[in-house]
Amino acid sequence: MIFIDRNGERAAAVNDALVGNDYVTRLERAVSEIVGKTAVAVSSFDSALHTALFLCGVGFGDYVFVPTYTFYSYVAPVVGVGAIPVFIDCDPVTRCVSHGALEQAFIWAELQGKPPKAVIIDNAFGSVADYDVLTPLCKAYCTPSVELTHGLCGDYNGRACGANCDYGVVGLGADGGVIVCGDEQTAAREFCRYEYSDGISFDYRLNNFSASVACSFIPVERKLSSRGRANLAALCAVADNVIPPVDGDSGRFALVRTGNVAGIRAARFEVKTPPPVHTLERYSACTYFEHEKGYSVSDWYSDCALVGMDISPLRRARLERLIRN
Fold first, then answer.
1. Nearest C-alpha neighbor of 118 from the set 131, 133, 102
2. How far apart are CA 316 and CA 232, in angstroms?
3. Most buried in the list 103, 110, 196, 208, measured by CB within 10 Å?
């Protein structure tokens, strides 16, 4: 195996891990200090989400409310445990789960006599959901909530992303994931085969090498987020067709209304144009709730582009010209 570290931040941690120092525990402690809750490191984002679904008691045939404006792969663990995804539209301001759509879904499920076993809320593409509105609604219907977040750089009213729901799922890029589970860490570890269990368990343990890489990247990620937020603010100040972020956005992507997606992509900027998941053929039979009747925000966002903000000032100036054209 060849390990290439271009910036030099990770080499020391990797060497330390290879001689046997425990970086899995170190990573869990680092995340716990940031989010203020107990965390268990696992091998991937999907395995962390699977563990959260287990802790919520999700089983075959259960409803799970999921966001539609997200990566389609995040719905796969729900389908994988045999649950039925019910898609929730996004809010026009936060780009995350819509309170209006979520409330409609709860009423619909209650009328069926089949309440959901979990609500998944994604901090979509770096934006942050309105948890002071969403989590009380989940609690009112006695349904556990799961926050999905990508990295540890966003925040909501002074609370770190990953700490705003009953459970948190934190993605660490290609270097594993973390399940934020509070007092249920023993059940999470048993499910992930950290400790002997008589019940169902999976080998979701994070290896020491990946844990060392993830540990060393946490401070780097903060620098990247700070640069992304600065770029995003500058872009919003000069370009009318960039939708401004709300407080707490980690600066990962700019949401741009532009007809020049091909030109931006050709200039080698990171561009994502994710379709709403409920529009994919495999989910065409699933139930979907709009933000308001006759107004599907996620469908409107499907005409926008998400452009990565981890760029230099020089490239930002070039991006401004591309967006204006």
1. 102
2. 9
3. 208
